[in-house]
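Morning run. Coffee first, then this:
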Amino acid sequence: MTKEVLITIAGMHTDAIDKGELNDGPIEVVTPASYFCKNGKHYILYDEVAEGIPGVTKNKIKITGDKVVEIMKSGITNTHMVFEKEKEHLTNYKTPYGQLMMGIHTKHIEILEEEDRIFAEIHYNLDVNEEAIAECEIQINVQPKSVGLTV
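And here it is:
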């Protein structure tokens, strides 16, 4: 795959307390990113700008084999989220408004690697400060910019 890619991140979550209630509906972001592969691990780097807050959050997604996806954020927000099937990972999530302790309980993870595409789908439960908050789904699609521009 080329170094210059487009990453599409789509996700939604349902309220864990009021089952079935969609929070804000599905969200999708498409942004340019950089890609490289090192020691068999895929890395995708991109910047995120938050509306109404000065500064940038640098994002790094690391995909290891077909079992683990890590999302690392630094800047306006800071965290290191680990998604690994049937496992729970805890992480601090620092925001301009304060810090939260998040629990990520990955129920399903599927990673597909093709010559010019990497796709990951993750289903997980999210706890904040030990309270169930949401059932979440996220899809990550990475492909060369040239493919994204011709679609």
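DSSP finds one helix and ten strands in the chain. Good start to the day.
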